Task: inverse folding
């Protein structure tokens, strides 16, 4: 495999074009294709229109080696993908008895009988191989034509993704178009902007310009750096890992981890290794901080719980924040942040606690909207940190949660390094 | 304006194709275009490649009246949009002194001086009108050619959206291509699947087939129905609203609201009108339920707070759930759900409380993973409800929160109707 095979995607459905649905299929497929050495060269969102899809498919097949379509395989008259592709290829369609049997069985299990419309889903393009759909009624199709491949996938995420992973990808690997796994490394950083990360790392990547694909992506308080060998043999994993280690050193405390674990998961993992527990208390972020921890599978081993206390009396009743402290310093203050953290640690019998109090906006108080204090309680002591972010309510909340997680990650890192030094001294 | 003007979009940037970024620009632009009577006919995600963009732009201009591009206006060599479009149009580029002045002022405010790379952003296509960018460094461009329009917009969301809303849309309205506002109505439903909603409403829409565009969209526990007149004069708003009222009757309790308010906002609004307050308690959804309420601006007037209690002792300490109840029935039980709700109402001095307890998975307990109980405490009494959903941890949590919100919305609706009947009896 010398140059990566070119892939184009047709994402089919009006709902993608009129502001109703985000095209998350493209994000999934794009990521998978790159990881397996294929080159996602173009995607098009097209309406449910036979002529438009037919023309676009024919044009895409002139440019690309592999054409993947998603959507438009349902039972209604809007679902025109099979017709359009058959016409683009100049092929007929046939009714597949095996697909009909599977469809009837699926309906029978729910006590239903398929109607004529449903049986439209049994139409297969002449010469196509059926890709069975264990998660839905519409089968996929695999078509080879003049050394090119068309993979026809259903629209629902829970049907499309397993069909791609279990049926399309293995066929592409057998064809020699996709690699089992291209040497790939992701570096997660926090606390720096995308351009700062790039300025730090680009000199490291320079000598590998023709062997390495580098992509930076800023999202949700982290900047990820994705490194992929351009081909399987271009940069063996061992060498790629050495490049990664150099990045780690250059990034210092901004290096969070290799991989794509959320910062919350890194924190939980570290606490779990030390047998420690965690609680949170939050006002303006109203549950988002707790949700970030609890979305991690297995979090209940470490995360004891949280308190969302919007009102001052809740801070006092549930967390024991003294009423006089609230009166003297206000609820949005470093004093209150620390008292909330300590209160949460006590109420939820936890070793560590993280707290957030602030004004998410649009209204402020003793501080302007966008002011957020982070409180941190640990066996080594308590800390508070202030951030300010101008932005929407949603952005301030998001930024507050990310800043709190990064604050705790860095504190734990220092602590772990301190422990390591202690060990070395012994 | 007889037929809607056709719009194509080019979404530019490698990051959209390799699984790094979702194309939320398309969702925003698609929604805005439809609401203003324009027809989003195609979107393409293209890599940062001058030739590919040039060709695709030239082809799009043959099909569409309006071409909108997003992204690729930055200072680096990856940012090739302006070059590519100039070539597609066979036009030159000029350096714009006004843009440079604005750029230098923007940098000076941060104590910086722009480098040669940054000055690339001052290149304007011959004959283009500059669209100033108050939120960033790259200006947009407005180009008219042979009765067609090209609108060139920057990539960052916070720059693209205001530029479209404040500069592009008003120009399109002045041209007579866009309407100030097309008669538009959104109906929000809960508790039914997309096909059930469609089966209920399609007969109502039938007589308006050529005057009304109908789109169904299922997301986050709701199914939205969007109704838009095909043209401003095709279906006046008064008539559209009468169609909406017929939908409301047909949907019964599945009708949540007209508009796009989240269910949590509907609940908060109703409680606020009655001067009531709310608290939540949750285990497996770990903060997500609280976050849904607190993301609504002004929620602090109604929402007193919440408790995330993963562990049994937290349920007992913070919410007063009796240890013997937990022992007898288990934490995932209707008894515990109700005790959590009542405990939250008491601890947070609230009139209403909503609770969730369950096994999000991958592990279960006395019940299989995916089992979730909802508890509800109100001045009229307490209720519990059980749901079961097979799916990922994330899906179970999401489903649990949506079911709890819908449960409370329906209970409040009954209560309000009951009150209304009481009034009528007086």
Result:
């Amino acid at each position: 495999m010398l140059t990566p095979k070119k892939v184009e995607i047709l994402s089919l459905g009006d709902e993608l074009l009129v502001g109703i649905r985000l095209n998350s299929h493209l994000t999934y497929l794009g990521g998978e294709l790159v990881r397996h050495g294929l080159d996602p060269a173009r995607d098009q969102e097209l309406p449910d229109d036979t002529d438009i899809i037919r023309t676009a498919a024919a044009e895409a097949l002139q440019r690309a080696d592999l054409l993947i379509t998603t959507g438009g395989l349902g039972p209604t008259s809007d679902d025109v993908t099979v017709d359009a592709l058959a016409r683009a290829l100049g092929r007929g369609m046939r009714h597949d008895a095996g697909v009909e049997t599977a469809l009837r069985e699926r309906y029978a299990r729910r006590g239903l009988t398929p109607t004529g419309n449903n049986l439209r889903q049994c139409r297969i393009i002449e010469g196509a191989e059926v890709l069975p759909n264990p998660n839905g009624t519409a089968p996929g199709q695999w078509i080879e034509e003049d050394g090119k491949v068309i993979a026809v996938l259903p629209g629902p995420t829970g049907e499309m993704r397993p069909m791609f992973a279990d049926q399309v990808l293995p066929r592409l690997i057998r064809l020699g178009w996709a690699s089992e796994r291209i040497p790939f490394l992701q570096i997660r950083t926090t606390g720096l902007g995308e351009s700062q990360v790039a300025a730090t790392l680009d000199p490291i990547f320079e000598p590998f310009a023709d062997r390495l694909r580098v992509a930076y992506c800023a999202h949700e308080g982290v900047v990820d750096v994705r490194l992929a060998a351009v081909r399987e043999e271009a940069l063996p994993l061992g060498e790629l890992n050495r490049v990664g280690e150099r990045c780690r050193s250059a990034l210092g405390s901004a290096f969070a981890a290799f991989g794509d674990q959320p910062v919350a998961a890194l924190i939980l993992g570290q606490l779990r290794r030390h047998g420690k527990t965690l609680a949170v208390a939050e006002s303006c972020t109203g549950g988002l901080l707790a949700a970030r921890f609890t979305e991690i599978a297995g979090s209940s081993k470490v995360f004891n719980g949280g308190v969302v206390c919007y009102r001052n009396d809740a801070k006092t009743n549930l967390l024991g924040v003294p009423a006089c402290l609230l009166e003297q310093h206000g609820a949005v203050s470093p004093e209150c942040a620390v008292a909330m953290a300590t209160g949460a640690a006590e109420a939820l019998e936890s070793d560590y606690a993280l707290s957030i109090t602030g004004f998410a906006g649009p209204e402020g108080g003793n501080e302007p909207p966008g002011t957020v204090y982070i409180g941190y309680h640990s066996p080594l002591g308590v800390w508070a940190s202030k951030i300010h972010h101008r932005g929407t309510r949603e952005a301030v909340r998001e930024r507050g949660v990310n800043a709190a997680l990064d604050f705790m990650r860095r504190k734990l890192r220092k602590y772990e390094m301190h422990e390591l030094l202690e060990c070395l001294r012994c």
